[in-house]
Amino acid sequence: MKRLFLLFTAVLFFYTSQTLPQSSISFIKKGKGRPVIFLPGLGCKGSVWDSAVNKLSAGYCCYEISYAGFAGMPPDGTFKIDRIIKDIIKFINQQKLQHPVLIGHSLSGFIALKAAAENPDVFSKLIIVDSFPFALAVYSPAITVEKAKQQGKIYEDMILKQNDEEFKKSERAMLSGLISGEKDIDTVLNWMMLSDRNAIAAATYEMISTDLRPELKKIKCSALIIGTWKGKEQLGFNKVTTPKIFAAQYENLKNKSIAVSDDSKHFIMLDAPEWLNSQITRFLSE
Description:
Blueprint: H1 2-14, E1 15-19, E2 25-31, E3 34-39, H2 50-56, E4 60-67, H3 81-95, E5 101-105, H4 107-118, E6 125-129, H5 136-139, H6 145-161, H7 164-175, H8 182-194, H9 197-209, E7 222-228, H10 241-249, E8 256-261, H11 268-271, H12 273-285
Parallel strand pairs: 3-4, 3-5, 5-6, 6-7, 7-8
Antiparallel strand pairs: 1-2, 2-4
Helix pairs in contact: 2-12, 3-4, 6-9, 7-8
């Protein structure tokens, strides 16, 4: 019985979940050591990062963050990126984390960039996975923020006006270009369908309508930018152009390196977990 109690205690120590009171985020903690915070993409749970966390937790203290309103988490008012960032900083202070690494995918790559620009002394390193500081400018280089806001409003209205069946059909079609495996598509689609539609729409609008490129100059820590091109060939992405596209978007980020996956679509942690984990491990050890 004593051995079982000790085992149970050890499991709790290395893998704990907690919902923070009056907060837009919750977290799962695994491992011990240097703190690494993982942020999920649009509509996803923090567990989308399980492969990387299971790999890193042998030597790092990993925190998988989930957002209110995403993947079945109860919504907590209107989704606001500024509030997410405020609650992440509050969480870091509450947990007494010393210069954590911040890793974000897609929407959360954008959130991570904004958090690091607004809090330049908090984070030791950034890892941005397939995300841009101003995505619409990739496809329309001359676009203005005002035009981006108009485009964002179109997307926001479209998301809100669709019924569940229409939303599910459009999301499945979109995810097929972002994820290779059918099982993984089903998992992410289920998370999207469990998400609060208002949160999805609000997050999409904020990301589309904001140009973070000028703010990148404020980021002090080193950053690894990881990109993909598979699934985006019709938009001009390929093995040659993709590093140049990322370099142009991140021109104002001084201390950066860029790595591009040739074997995965947008959800690299699902399509090519071993490659992604090797990039993360290498960068953290530098």
